[in-house]
Amino acid sequence: MTLKIGVIGTGAIGREHIKRITNNLSGGKIVAVTDVNQESAKSAVEQFSLDAAIYPDDKALVADANVDAVLVTSWGPAHEQSVLAAIEAGKYVFCEKPLATTAEGCMRIVEAEMKHGKRLVQVGFMRRYDSGYVQLKEAIDSNYIGEPLMIRCVHRNPEVGDNYTTDMEINDTLVHEIDVLHWLINDDYKFVQVAFPKKTKRAAAHLQDPQLITLETNSGIIITAEVFVNCKYGYDIQCEVIGEEGVAYLPEFSGIATRKEAKFGTSILMDWKQRFIAAYDKELQDFMDSIKNTGEPNGPTSWDGYIAAVTADACVKSQQTGEKELVVLADKPDFYKN
Ligand code: NAI
Ligand code: NAD
Ligand code: ISE
């Protein structure tokens, strides 16, 4: 069975996903596209020589009987409407993060999915498919480093555009750590606090960069996460889990090492597209395979999207108050318990 996919949002990651589904993965075919910028939708069809219908908006695309599943890769504030339309039509959805930009929006999606009666939605938290994070999880789950006590992580981008704002350091960037870390340690967040260190001269006037976020879990694990999106030198993701019996590190992205002109070195990537390329492949392959084999997607759920949104909201509140803020989650419905 080939899963026939409609794409909503043919920008940067929309095209990356179209390319991998069309050229690298098996079991899926792009049959429809839309973008608020219709020229972008047309040019994506041309760029990848797709045999795909071009629709004026998400509703028309979702209504196409030929579309089995929807890939939502528009900008964050547009996600909720497209995901709800797909659930209403009983279609599968792979939605890039964030699931919705508010906790209330995520809850509306959770409720719509539960009303539908089976899982339809997978959220694009691809780090859970990255082999480095999978190895870290194995080290924790097998008790190799004992009880985790603290985690230190770093999320650095070389630069961002002018439309990137202070809250996006949380909603757009830290959101990956928010998701992958609670999965890694199987714990939920209780308190968060955001501090603003000295600002880099490279950040736009309106942007507070870097930021230092502290997350405290129910069991008392303390996580410190640095987000620095104008670090200039590269795309750098680090994670160190300090346990009672030892310490585990996320592997560095491996490239060749060189010795030249009295220096020994390896390169650092510049682009998120490359750093998690294998994880993006795996998450989408898993989405298509699990629908084919079990009738439901298997990856991060709408509930994971909700947890990320509630935690991000508390961080954004702390950006404004400077205080430690409580993370208040609703009780997890049985529907999302494995
Ligand atoms: P982008 O700005 O390159 O592309 C977004 C596209 O969506 C644009 O073509 C825009 O015209 C279109 N669009 C916006 N609103 C729309 C609507 N209502 N209906 C249809 N099309 C609409 O953005 P980019 O970088 O591709 O990001 C898209 C999404 O992917 C974001 O949610 C972002 O957070 C996520 N993302 C995830 C990454 C990951 O590592 N998982 C990496 C990069 C982006
Ligand atoms: P982008 O701006 O390059 O592309 C977004 C596209 O969506 C644009 O073409 C825009 O015209 C279109 N669009 C916006 N609103 C729309 C709507 N209502 N209907 C249809 N099209 C609409 O952005 P991007 O970098 O591709 O990011 C897109 C999404 O992917 C974001 O949610 C982002 O957070 C996510 N993202 C995830 C990762 C990741 O590592 N998982 C990386 C990058 C982006
Ligand atoms: C982008 O949207 C992503 O998801 C990338 O993974 C992240 O590193 C970047 O900061 C975001 O803007």
Nutshell version of this structure?
The protein is 36% helix and 23% strand.
Description:
- This protein has 10 helices and 15 strands.
- It has 338 residues and is α/β, with parallel strands linked by helices.
- It folds into 2 domains: 3-127 and 278-302, Rossmann fold (3-Layer(aba) Sandwich), CATH 3.40.50.720; 131-270 and 307-312 and 328-336, Dihydrodipicolinate Reductase, domain 2, CATH 3.30.360.
- The strands form 3 sheets. The protein has a 7-stranded mixed β-sheet, covered by helices on one side.
- The longest helix has 20 residues, at 302-321.
- The site of nicotinamide-adenine-dinucleotide has 25 residues, from helix 1.
